[in-house]
Automatic annotation (TrEMBL):
GO (cellular component) term, any one: DNA-directed RNA polymerase complex
GO biological process annotation, one example: DNA-templated transcription initiation
Annotated organism of origin: Kandleria vitulina DSM 20405
InterPro entries recorded: RNA_pol_sigma_54 (IPR000394), RNA_pol_sigma_54_core-bd (IPR007046), RNA_pol_sigma_54_DNA-bd (IPR007634), RpoN_core-bd_sf (IPR038709)
Domain RNA polymerase sigma factor 54 core-binding: 67-244
Protein name: RNA polymerase sigma-54 factor
Length: 409
């Protein structure tokens, strides 16, 4: 009986070891968030005799379990769809595009920035954008809500509506039927049908993936200010060690050696991950020093610029920033928020967004400003961008259009 039990025990160890090795070797530690890393560590703690926890943190708490109850993220679904495609594409370009998507599934940067950061021509970028925009949900990878509607109309072969919306998008947003009728010669019934097709599109098709309110987020670092000094402190990191003494007792056992190698592999990769996150965070905090010390506007900083400063490839930094968070003044923020694009004129997107918020908050509520008038106000402040950028930033800030902001006296 004892011999039989021992044999069964060894078989179970072998199966578990195979699973753990597969997970560890296929895992991109840089891309994983703190919760996923801690979940992995908890599994290894339960199966590997050489890994021990130096702290009393319970990674299997109810709060931790709930953080993994949500459905797949948008980016996870996009990677899954991408893996099933038969098209030829550059993996690093597709990864950069997917990781650059904001919470609404839109491109975060101007097209010129993608060309510069990826060092590719317009044809290559267009090819890879078309692949991204061919994925579900239809409209993902658009520049903004308007572009998302255009993608949906084109995908659904609503070419007449596509042409009208592309040509008269400003007019359609103001619901000026008569101008479209005059310019195109279309009858009111035809225009009504085109409007119906346009309205049937979802300007924010990726909103169903927004589960941030239900998901527990564990920050990787805490940022604080003491005596005008910015402190960066790692938090929620697994505190584990290898039991070398135990290995000395069983080192001649082949299976135990495999477990020991697994333990070393895990700790080595966790150490590299945590060092890389700290290095990238430290450089970002240096760049955004004025923001943390004096609440200044965020400085323009792109992946390419950060790459040049640190010496890492853009894809490495992109994976490092993926699903990483920091706390500051009791609030939790995505670390990638410290990356700020700039307009073609060189102004930071952060400064323009703050100015838009200020302009809208001080406008006459009975006569709210259109995007064109907001653009004029920004130019007066010597902040320059296009009207389309204004619309994009306004939507990102969840500011309704002027017609919806209007208040009756």
């Amino acid at each position: 009986m004892i011999l039989k039990q021992t044999l069964h025990y060894n078989q179970t160890l072998k199966q578990t070891l195979k699973l753990n090795q597969k997970i560890l070797k296929s895992l991109d530690f840089l891309k994983e968030n703190t919760d996923d890393i801690n979940k992995l560590v908890q599994k290894v703690l339960e199966t590997n005799p050489f890994i021990e926890s130096k702290s009393t943190v319970n990674y299997d708490s109810q709060q931790f379990i709930e953080s993994f109850s949500s459905t797949h993220t948008l980016k996870e679904d996009l990677y899954y769809q991408l893996s099933a495609l038969s098209y030829t594409y550059d993996q690093s370009i597709m990864e950069y595009l997917i990781e650059s998507l904001d919470d609404a599934g839109f491109l975060s940067y101007p097209i010129n920035q993608y060309l510069n950061d990826l060092n590719i021509n317009e044809d290559t970028l267009s090819k890879h954008l078309n692949i991204l925009q061919s994925l579900e949900p239809c409209g993902v990878g658009a520049e903004d809500a308007i572009d998302s509607i255009l993608i949906q109309l084109k995908r659904n072969n609503k070419m007449k509506s596509y042409t009208i919306f592309n040509r008269f998008k400003d007019t359609i947003l103001t619901q000026n039927y008569s101008l479209i009728k005059k310019e195109t010669g279309l009858k009111k019934e035809e225009i009504d049908h085109l409007y119906y097709e346009i309205r049937s599109c979802n300007p924010f098709p990726c909103n169903n993936y927004n589960t941030s309110n239900d998901r527990y987020i564990s920050p990787d670092i805490a940022i604080s200010v003491e005596d005008s000094n910015i402190l960066i402190t790692p938090v929620n990191q697994p505190d584990i060690m290898i039991n070398d003494k135990l290995f000395e007792e069983v080192k001649n056992n082949k299976k135990m050696k495999e477990y020991f190698n697994e333990a070393n592999f895990l700790i080595e990769n966790l150490t590299k991950r945590n060092q890389t996150v700290l290095l990238v965070a430290n450089e970002l905090v240096k760049i955004q020093e004025g923001y943390f010390l004096y609440d200044d506007e965020l400085m323009p900083c792109t992946l390419s610029q950060l790459s040049n400063k640190i010496g890492f490839h853009e894809s490495t930094i992109s994976r490092t920033l993926n699903n990483k968070y920091y706390t500051f003044h009791g609030e939790t923020y995505p670390l990638k928020n410290l990356l700020v694009s700039q307009t073609t004129s060189g102004d930071s997107s952060d400064s323009i967004k703050k100015a838009i918020l200020e302009i809208v908050s001080n406008e006459d509520k009975t006569h709210p400003l259109s995007d064109n008038k907001i653009l004029t106000k920004l130019n007066e402040l010597e902040l320059h961008c296009s009207r389309r950028v204004i619309t994009k930033y306004r939507q990102q800030l969840q500011i309704p259009s002027s017609s919806k902001r209007k208040q009756l006296k």
